[in-house]
Amino acid sequence: MSDAFRSFADADSVFTVETADGGLLPVYALRPRGAAAAALLLGHANGLPAGSYGPWLKELARDVQVFAFDARGHGGAIWPSGPLDQVFHVDRFADDLRRVTDTVMARLGTTPLFYLGHSLGGAAAIDLAAAGRLPDFAGLLLLEPPVFPPSDSPVREEAETRQTRLVEGAKRRRADWPSVEAFRDRLKNSSSPFARFAPAMLDAHCHAALKPKAGGDFTLASPPDVEAAIFTAHRHSDAWSHLDRIERVLDLVGGDPNRPDRDWVARAMPDMARRLKRARLTQLAGIGHLMIQEDPARLLALVRRWLGCA
After folding, report:
1. Distance between CA atoms of 98 and 5, rounded to whole angstroms?
2. Strand, coil or helix: 297
3. SS3 call for 37
4. pLDDT, tens only, 297-309
5. How far is CA 226 from CA 87, 113, 197, 209, 284, in A?
6. pLDDT band (50, 70, 90) for residue 143
7. CA triplet 129, 221, 43: central angle to 5 degrees?
8. Which among 116, 145, 167, 160 has a CA at the least distance from the CA of 265?
């Protein structure tokens, strides 16, 4: 990986995990600043590779050993060619999470490993849990996993509408940029959720999401058609019908369902929690789907409490 693009360039170390279909996923490690009795693995959201969480993960590494990986279609990951609906099916992300986790656990030995799954990263964990293939995590905290509601759900129509907008918006996304600064200025002055990012988080995301091209320009490390395919995959997942199979305790966090610019997932979270056998749901007022980037201090405090570090 020495010459490969890294979304989290200043991680302490990086290693790779091979996927079942021949891809390669970079896994970034941060050493704890002091004594740490536990470790945490982050699974990121669609369109936000591991480096998009960089400053926040560094703060978290005061207390625990931290691992984060670029999922297929993101950052420095290498994925196989093939039909997008197959290469980026939710099951592939679940398979990849299992492989990454097994590798990290082998490195840790007896150190307990917690899992934090944001959006796509949460959906992958739900998929594994429903299939009875979830690793032996010490705990799971899932931030708005986009488990698509069934046709009889009161949230279904909104989910269809908002997910269609996400897919079409991803397809229209501009891929090539003359500089990281131009990309950051565009996001900062847009009406998108990126405009609400804390400055350090926006800067980290812009460096993580763009990879250099020959000639000095940059391009999105997660191509528009790939991002759109992943959003589409959520809609086609049947995970909701299997939620009642999950025996593990899941800690769920949702954003504010009353915000007009909310993601549909915020409204679906209470029904999702009721469907699960052992879910504990927290919904945060005044915050959106990309909550770590929007309010890193608030989410850091929440995660530290969950880990027992506060």
Report:
1. 23
2. helix
3. coil
4. 999 999 999 999 8
5. 9, 30, 23, 13, 30
6. very high
7. 20
8. 145
In sequence order, what are the residues at sequence separation of 6 or more whose Cβ sits closer than 8 angstroms to the Cβ of residue 252? 141, 142, 145, 269, 272, 273, 279, 280, 281, 282
Residue written as tokens 């990086």? 14
HSE-up of residue 146 (Cα within 13 Å, Cβ side): 26
Residue 310 pLDDT level (bands cut at 50, 70, 90) = low
Q: Which residue matches tokens 């400053």?
A: 55
Distance CA 176, CA 280 (A): 42
Give the count of alpha carbons within 13 A of 30, CB side only. 30
SS3 171: helix
User: How do strand 279-283 and strand 139-143 relate by DSSP bridges?
Assistant: unpaired
Predicted local distance difference test score (pLDDT) of residue 2: 42
Name residues whose C-beta falls within 8 Å of residue 164's C-beta, 6 or more positions apart in sequence: none
Domains of the chain and any CATH numbers = 13-307 (3.40.50.1820)
